[in-house]
Every structure is written in C-alpha cells, then in structure tokens.
C-alpha cells in the first residue's frame, strides 16, 4: 500500500473484530515490505489497524509469519526491529506508535534513556527471535540499548522463559554461557557463578531494588525479564546486601498488564509425579488504558526426578500500574512459599580428617536419581514482599523517580549433610536445625535528565539509595565427633545425630545481625560527534554500618561504620551503525570479613574492600543476529592470616578471560542463543605463599552453551528446540589436589501451537539431561553440587 507524499495519511484496515477480543488467528504472511505485511496482517487477523504512514517509511522488510498467533504475539513478531510498538483503544482499534516517546523515554541522537519503571511499554524492545532484548537496566543509568552501553549484559525475555518451561531463575540462566549454578552451603538456595565469582540469591535485584525477592529460590511465573549484568557493579547498583556479585549482577523485571488483555492458564507435569497449575490474568482499563492489573497464581507439588525428594510450591502476585502523560506509578505485591522434603543436599569432602582414604581423588558422582538425604530432613521458605514505584516527568528532558519496598522472610529447616572421607563413599552425617527471620527495607530515588553544552550532549544521573536488614536466627548442630556414620552410595536411613551445639532460642530467635547500606551516586554520559562517541564517568559514595550479636548470649560483637567511594569509567565508540567498541574500568564493594578464631585479631570486622575490573569489548548488531565479545580482568582481595598471626585482606584472586555471546534469528524460523566463556584464574599472595599460582576453587576453565529453536517447515505451529551445556573441570580446594571433571548436558524439547475451539493452545515438552548423565555440576564454595537427573516436563497453555 503506497501513501501520498508530503501528507501524513492514516490507513484504516478493518474486518470487524476488536484486537482485544481476538485470542488466536491463523496467519500466513510472507517476507515483504512492512507496509504490505501490516496490510496482510490486518486482513487475516480481522482487526482495525491505524498508523501514520511516516512511521514505516524507510523501515526494512518483515520476516515470514506463519502459524497460529494471538494478535499481540503476531504484531510483536511483525514489528521486531522496526522501532514501533502498538496500543489498543477502548473500541479495540490497534494503533502503531514509536517505541519511545516523551512520556516514557528521553531521546538524544542515537542514544535512548528509557524511564525508570518497568511497564511493558517502557522496556527495551526485543531482538530478532524474541529470546533476548535489545537493552536492559544499567542500574543508576536506567534502561540502555545494548549498542550504547560500555558494559556486557544479557536480557532474557518471557518468550524464552515460556519456551524453556523455566520454573526458577536457574532454569532461565542455564541459557547463559557466562553463568553456572550451584546450591548454597547446607541449604537449597540457588547460588550463581558469574565470571568465576559467587552471586547469592539474596543479592538479586527486583525492578532495580535490592532485598525484595525470595532469598533462596526465585520462581518465574510473575517474571517478564531476567537481566544479567557481567562484571563489577558497585557504582551502577550500589553495594549488595550480602556483598556477593563481584563478577556480575542480576535484575528481575516483573510482569505488567499489556495493552491486549491476558487470560492464560497453564497445567504442567514433571516426573515422577510433580503437577502444577499457573493462572496469569492481566487487564488494562480506564481512559487510554492508563490503569493496569496483572495477577499471577501458581501451585506445584509432588515428587521430583530425584528419588524421594518432594516439593510443594505456592505463589501469589499482584502487579499494578498507572500510565499518565507525565506521572507513572507501579506497585508489586507478592507471596511465595516453598517446602522441600528429603531434598538432595550438597556433599562436603573431609580431606584432612584421621582415616581419610580419598587419596587426592574426588569420589564419583552417585547415580543421577539417587538421593542421599535423610528421611528426617526438610526445608521451608516463606517470603512476603511489597514495593512501590513513582516516576514524574518534570519536563520533556528531566524525570524524577522513587522506588521503595519491604520484605519479610521466614525460613526453617532440618538439614542433613554428607561429609565424605572415604574413597568408597564412607561419610559422617551431620545435622543442622536453623530457624531464621529476616526483615528488609529498601529505597532508591533520583533525578535523570539530558541537556546540551555546545556540541556535547549530556545524560545526567543523580541517585540516592539505602537498604536496611535485620536478621534473627538460632541453630542447633552436631560437632564432628558426634556425627552419625553413613555412605554416599547407600541410602539406608541414619538416626538423627545427637545435638551437641545449641545457639539461641529455637522458638524465639534473637537479633543476630543488622546491616545498613546507604549511598549517593552521580554520573554523566557525554556524547561527542553526534553521539557516536559516548564517555560515561561516575562516582558512588557508599557507607556500610554492620553490627552483630551472639545468637546464644546476645553479646554484641565489634562492628563498624565505614564509607568508601567507588568510581566508574566507560567509553563507547560506534564507527558504524553495526559495530560498537567499548571499554570500562569499574569496581565492586564488599562488607569486610571477620577475623577467624585462630588469628590474633579474632572477632575484628575488617573494613569494606573493593574488587577492580578492567574490560574491553565489541558488540555487533546485524539486525537479525548479534553478538558480544569481551576481554575482562577482575582482581578481588582475599583474607589471609600473615606470619605475624594477624588476619588481613592481603591476598588476591585474579580472574581474567574471554566471553563470546551470540543471539538472534539469522534465518527465518531458526533462533540461536549461545556462546563460550574461557577463564584463567590465579591465587596470589596466599598464606606463606603455599598456594600462589593455583587456580581458585569452583571456577571452570571454560563454559560453552548452544541453544537453538527451530520452526519445522511444512508443519504450522511446530517448533523443536535444544540446549547443549559443556563445563570444564573445577578444583574443590585451594591446594588444587582435588578436582571434579568436565561435564556435558543436553536438553531437547518441542513446542506446538494450535487452536482448539477458538482458543490459542500451546503444548510444550522438554527433556533435560537427555542422556541421564551422573556428574558433579559444581565445586563452587568448596563443596559438591550434583547435576539434576533426566527430567521430563510437559505443559499445556490455553488463552481464554
């Protein structure tokens, strides 16, 4: 369809059904110009479509769209890479609009700074293939396009979450070549390893705010995107509550009501007998669809693929938002509860005990389905949270924002542990009972804007943030001499070991820790040569106040109140529209450790310490296929007891490596997501130089991922997918005497979209660890996490 030059003409295409009422249609639209594709789409979908002809002038062609899609899904696919999105009027009319406008974005040349809130329309657009987004939240800098930021990051979309049947954050991040996952020490918390450094679930942000998410296992039913930032990030995000995240940060973006109503129910089943249901309802209403409500309810329970391991999970979230001309508001309320009975725990190696027969060799991993947990072990996690966001455009160039929230956590569990000392699996079985209550409050506010000083553009950011946490806990445990006897390969139940250590009141734990982290950040991104050169400079002044009390006596330990400034420097050079070259020098900040009992300064809390990162890289964007190549170096101080008997931060762990990530849809119907990470790690200035030059614990030398999703030609709606994971060997302790071998995992799946009785229906099937390999997945933390067995998942989703 051609339009008359010089006059902005509106095109109206209508066949009578409002877009909000159409749930699924069968589409067959060949690759062609975007104008022609939109014409075909409106006719086949039966919708009224309006847009200004100037919006599509000069925009490239569309890809093939064939199969059953809802109107929303079809338009998203058709508009990928066009810079356009759409809204739905009260009468069901669909209107195309630029993806960024003055109400929710600040635009300057080739650089776009999106609004602080995370409504769907405010998010960076998806990349070709729909599995990743073009941008993500860069902490204090807000949402940034991938080509404009001097950092490496990935943003995974709800489309990937649904295609992978991802039920936890670990399921999503299995697709990231720079991230691996393990369990926490003595519990079932998901710990992620990014660039060779731990990131605890406590330190994962929610809509840019720390301290809000469940602290052990994060579910995905209410998640829109998972954003992974690679590298040190104290300036961008502030110091994290637990001080982890030296190698990277993760931000979880919540779902919001979309312009087209959501009415979706999913039933899922996994072997052996785990069954669940998920209801997702979203609606916008009021003038111009300004008000939105999104509700997610989920429940899942039954036995997992691991023998005797049973889980029960409940989730309820409500996400509210308001989109005004200048004011945008949002609120997120959530409740999550999970119980694990006889959960397979991590395995500890007792390499120095009397009678040790390990002989420098880690015992083989048990059968993949085998469960060494004791029948008396269990864990229960319960989290309730609420947060509020406000954003106001002071002018077309300046925006002020505020985000605040609180969370209450109750955790309880009776944990069993295997401390293996024999080559044939002989072990001592420990017992730990540890009730915990935790309260967190967090707030961040700021001002973001842009201005010009002669030919130089400026993107200015000022932000203040704070987090307050209080922990109340107690615990019972067994001394090494009182542990029971068992075997890693024999699941014969063992009686509960005698409780030989008790700290605090198990029924009413007292306060044991309080932490206050506060910071003030200032940054400016200067644009030169029509923003083809972007220089970011910033500072964050941070203060950490930490106090602790003995769980049994209530005696206060020496605390500290320290402040430190962390700078950040970043440079982006864009020689062509397809290529961005970047470099950065940034830092991470951690709360100082406490000197151990054996040190002459035992019990003293050391001052905060910083880890430093230097990185250079290149980003390529061919429109349908893109990638990121980076070279990084991170230096983290390590605690060492010196020859004088005093404990100090005199050692160092140095990780340096190369990361390559690839993503997109290079050919119609073939979506790829993968990459490789190579890491060289070294310990330096260790105690008496004993371990100088050794590799760090739990850091694989290489990680390789290849994921593919392929639409089968000739079979409308059918897609096949697969994921290959390859991870190098890892050392379990600093002397590098014990190590686990490299491992490989393959997942295969299929997805079929169709329409039944006028409803869009999607069937999903996935087999994880197809070969049922038995392997140690991680030595992170100095203990062993076993890989999951072959797991068969199926689900059916219906839009109603």
UniProtKB/TrEMBL annotation:
- Record has Iron as a keyword: yes
Q: In what way does this protein cross or attach to the membrane?
A: Multi-pass membrane protein
InterPro entries, A to Z: Beta-barrel_TonB (IPR000531), Beta-barrel_TonB_sf (IPR036942), Plug_dom (IPR012910), Plug_dom_sf (IPR037066), Secretin/TonB_short_N (IPR011662), TonB-dep_rcpt-like (IPR039426), TonB_rcpt_CS (IPR010917), TonB_sidphr_rcpt (IPR010105)
Signal peptide segment: 1-24
Pfam name, any one: TonB_dep_Rec_b-barrel
Secretin/TonB short N-terminal domain location is 47-99
GO MF, one term, reads: siderophore uptake transmembrane transporter activity
GO cellular component, as recorded: cell outer membrane
Q: Which SMART domains match?
A: STN
Kindly state the positions of the motif TonB C-terminal box in this protein. Answer: 783-800
* Protein's GO biological process: siderophore transport
CDD domains noted in UniProt: ligand_gated_channel
For the keyword Amino-acid biosynthesis, the answer is no
What are the TM regions of this chain, as residue ranges? none
Highest taxon of the source?
Bacteria
NCBIfam families for the chain:
TonB-siderophor (TIGR01783)
The protein depicted here goes by the name TonB-dependent receptor
The organism is Pseudomonas berkeleyensis
């Amino acid at each position: 369809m051609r339009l008359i030059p010089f006059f902005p003409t509106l095109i109206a295409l209508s066949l009578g059904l409002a877009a909000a009422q159409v749930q699924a249609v069968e589409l067959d639209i060949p690759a062609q110009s975007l104008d022609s594709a939109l014409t075909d789409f409106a006719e086949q979908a039966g919708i009224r479509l309006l847009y200004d002809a100037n919006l599509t002038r000069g925009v490239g062609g569309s890809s093939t769209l064939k199969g059953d899609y809802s109107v929303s899904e079809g338009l998203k696919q058709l508009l990928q890479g066009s810079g356009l999105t759409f809204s739905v009027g009260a009468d069901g009319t669909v209107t195309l609009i630029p993806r960024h406008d003055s109400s929710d974005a600040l635009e300057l040349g080739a650089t776009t700074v999106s609004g602080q809130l995370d409504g769907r329309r405010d998010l960076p657009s998806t990349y070709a293939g729909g599995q990743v987004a073009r941008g993500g939240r860069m902490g204090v800098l807000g949402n940034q396009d991938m080509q404009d930021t001097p950092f490496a990051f990935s943003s995974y979309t709800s489309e990937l979450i649904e295609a992978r049947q991802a039920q936890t954050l670990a399921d999503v991040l299995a697709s990231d070549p720079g991230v691996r996952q393990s369990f926490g020490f003595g519990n079932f918390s998901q710990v992620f390893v990014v660039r060779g450094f731990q990131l605890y679930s406590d330190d994962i942000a929610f809509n840019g705010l720390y301290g809000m998410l469940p602290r052990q296992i994060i579910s995905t039913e209410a998640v829109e995107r998972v954003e992974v930032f690679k590298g040190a990030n104290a300036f961008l995000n502030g110091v994290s509550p637990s001080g982890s995240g030296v190698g990277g940060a993760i931000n979880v973006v919540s779902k919001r009501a979309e312009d087209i109503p959501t009415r979706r129910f999913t039933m899922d089943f996994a072997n052996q007998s785990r069954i669940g249901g998920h209801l997702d309802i979203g609606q916008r209403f009021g003038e111009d669809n300004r008000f939105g409500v999104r509700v997610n309810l989920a429940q899942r329970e039954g036995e997992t693929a691991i023998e005797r391991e049973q889980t029960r999970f409940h989730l309820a979230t409500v996400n509210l938002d308001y989109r005004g001309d200048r004011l945008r508001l949002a609120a997120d309320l959530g409740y999550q509860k999970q119980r694990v009975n006889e959960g397979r725990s991590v395995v500890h190696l007792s390499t120095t005990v009397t009678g040790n027969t390990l002989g420098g060799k880690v015992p083989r991993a048990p059968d993949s389905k085998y469960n060494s947990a004791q029948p008396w072990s269990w864990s229960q996690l319960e989290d309730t949270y609420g947060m509020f966001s406000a954003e106001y455009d002071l002018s077309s160039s300046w925006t002020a924002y505020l985000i605040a929230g609180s969370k209450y956590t109750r955790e309880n569990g009776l944990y069993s542990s295997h401390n293996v000392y024999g080559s044939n699996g002989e072990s001592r079985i420990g017992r730990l009972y540890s009730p915990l209550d935790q309260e967190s409050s967090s707030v961040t506010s700021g001002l973001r804007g842009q201005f010009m000083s002669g030919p130089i553009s400026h993107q200015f950011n000022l932000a203040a943030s704070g987090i307050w946490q209080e922990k109340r806990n107690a615990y019972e445990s067994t001394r090494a001499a009182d542990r029971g006897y068992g075997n890693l390969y024999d699941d014969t139940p063992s009686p509960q070991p005698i409780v030989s250590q008790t700290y605090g009141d198990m029924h009413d734990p007292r306060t044991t820790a309080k932490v206050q982290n506060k910071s003030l950040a200032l940054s400016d991104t200067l644009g030169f040569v029509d923003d083809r050169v972007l220089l970011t400079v910033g500072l964050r002044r941070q203060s950490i106040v930490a106090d602790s009390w003995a769980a049994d006596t209530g005696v206060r330990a020496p605390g500290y109140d320290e402040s430190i400034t962390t700078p950040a420097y970043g440079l982006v050079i864009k020689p062509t529209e397809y290529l961005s070259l970047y470099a950065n020098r940034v830092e991470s900040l951690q709360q100082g450790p406490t000197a151990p009992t054996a040190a002459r300064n035992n019990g003293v809390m050391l001052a905060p310490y910083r880890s430093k990162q230097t990185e250079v890289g290149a980003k390529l964007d061919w429109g349908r296929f893109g990638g990121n190549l980076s070279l990084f170096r991170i230096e983290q101080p390590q605690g060492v007891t010196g020859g004088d008997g005093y404990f100090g931060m005199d050692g160092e762990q140095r990780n340096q490596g190369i990361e390559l990530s690839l993503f997109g849809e290079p050919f119609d119907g073939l979506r790829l997501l993968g990459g490789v990470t190579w890491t060289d790690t070294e310990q330096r200035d260790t105690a008496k130089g004993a371990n100088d030059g050794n590799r760090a614990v739990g850091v694989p030398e290489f990680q390789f991922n290849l994921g593919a999703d392929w639409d089968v030609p000739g079979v409308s709606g059918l897609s096949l997918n697969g994921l290959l994971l390859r991870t190098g060997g890892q050392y379990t302790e600093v002397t590098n005497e014990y190590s686990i071998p490299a491992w490989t995992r393959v997942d295969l799946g299929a997805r079929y979209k169709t329409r039944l009785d006028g409803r869009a229906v999607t069937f999903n099937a996935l087999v994880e660890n197809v070969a049922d390999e038995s392997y140690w997945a991680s030595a992170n933390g100095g203990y062993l996490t076993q890989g999951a067995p072959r797991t068969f998942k199926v689900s059916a989703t219906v839009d109603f």
